[in-house]
Amino acid sequence: MSGCPVCGDLAPHALRRIVRTPRLTVRQCQRCGLHLADPVAPLVGKAGDYYAALPLAEYIAYYEPLRRRVFAENWRWIVARRPTGLALDVGASFGWFLQAAPPGWQVRGLEPAAEVAALARAAGLDVRPGGIEALATDPQQYDLITFWNVFEHLPDPQGTLAIVREHLRPGGLLALAVPNRQGVLNQLAYLAYFLSRGRIAGPLHTLFQVENPAPHRFHYTAGDLQRLLAAAGFAVLAVVGQPIVDLRRLALRAKLEPDGGGLASHPLGRALLTLAVGVSWLLRLPDEIALYAQLCTSPQLAPSEAPATPGREESAGAFGASGWMSASLLHQSATVAARCLTG
Ligand SMILES: [Zn+2]
Questions:
Q1: Which helix or strand (DSSP H or E) is residue 147 part of?
Q2: What separation in Å is there between the alpha carbon of 1 and the centre of ligand 1?
Q3: I want to staple 254 with a disulfide (CB 3.0 to 4.6 A). Which of 180, 204, 215, 261 is the partner?
């Protein structure tokens, strides 16, 4: 890892190691606060093997109802601003987001797991095998490009955004969902690790998906993403908290954990998880955030607007029609949006 992709600090001392286990190293940028993960264990496969490591039937039984609910919400947000268009979903998985597309939207997907892409095609969807690199040779211009629970796995966020910029029409939308480092469950995982002096690392391993062939490479906050996107010529329109845990199917979740279940395998653990989810919504610190951004029509305005230091302002977030963001971040974002979308 040569430096920080959010603030561009390339000095070696800029990244301080804060977590080290036999499976995972997490470094924190001393300038902007971004968390970067080095997968310690050699990767057992390519990104396309993501699903090979999962019990597929349980994965679908647990995630399909949850994701369909969330995707319907994502589409509502998009359609309110853009009623029609051509969309591309990167990491389309089984195609649940594409299937939820409202009339007026033409949709296609890219999925690195060839067998999963084939299943989506068998369901009548235009899902091609491949990852973000396949987009580089796609001549199409899109009105919307999405990365649902994909962006945190990508090792080169700046390079990815440059490719996205090339393939969006002017004023096109980018939408993505990532784990929120400021979420309650996320913070508890770090707390358990630090308080136990590194002995309790299981929650962090789960969080970074270290068992997976394509583990999480970055742990973002809304502020990190806002800075990253501003520097790439995007104006963030909203950040919205969304559920990561299906409380009605929590018992199923245990079968998805590589260690045989963790918290979700015991009734008491499930009660604690339920409590933590409730607390995260009460404190407005959701463990997953969806972010909606628009490609600036005059991108040169955006980078200078990116705030240089994160402070702690994002932690006092607010849900609402405009999503989850601090008042100052929202104001900053609205200013960038107003200037770069009319410029
Ligand atoms: Zn940084």
A1: strand 142-148
A2: 12
A3: 261
**Beta strand 288-295 with 234-241: parallel, antiparallel or unpaired?**
antiparallel
- Give distance in angstroms: CA of 36 to centre of ligand 1: 10
Contact 337, 290 (CB under 8 A): no
Q: What was the pLDDT predicted at 339?
A: 63
- Dihedral sign computed on CA atoms, order 133, 137, 138, 140: positive
3-state secondary structure of 284: coil
Query: How far, in Å, from the CA of 169 to the mean position of ligand 1?
Result: 29
Q: List the end-to-end C-alpha distance of the chain, in Å, as a whole number.
A: 36
User: pLDDT per residue over 36-83, tens digit each?
Assistant: 997 554 444 555 677 776 778 888 888 899 999 999 999 999 999 999
Give this prediction's pTM. 0.87
Mean pLDDT on 105-127: 95
Q: Quote the ligand 1 centre to 310 CA distance (angstroms).
A: 10
Comparing 133 with 87, which gets the higher pLDDT? 87
Region of 171 please: left (phi>0), alpha (psi -120 to 50) or beta: left
CA–centroid distance, residue 257 to ligand 1 (Å): 31
pLDDT tens for 241-255 read 998 888 888 878 777
Local structure of 88: helix, strand or coil: strand
Percent of the chain with pLDDT over 70: 80
**Residue 134 alpha carbon to ligand 1 centre in Å:** 28
Domains of the chain in start order, with CATH, are 45-342 (3.40.50.150)
State the distance from the centre of ligand 1 to the C-alpha of 151, rounded, in angstroms.
Answer: 17
Residues 180 and 241: beta-carbon distance below 8 Å:
yes
Closest C-alpha to 237, from 225, 252, 255, 253: 225
CA of residue 60 to ligand 1 center, whole Å: 36
Determine the number of helices (DSSP H) and then strands (DSSP E) in the chain: 12, 11
- Tens of pLDDT, residue by residue over 254-304, are 777 766 566 777 888 888 888 988 898 888 899 999 999 999 876 544 444
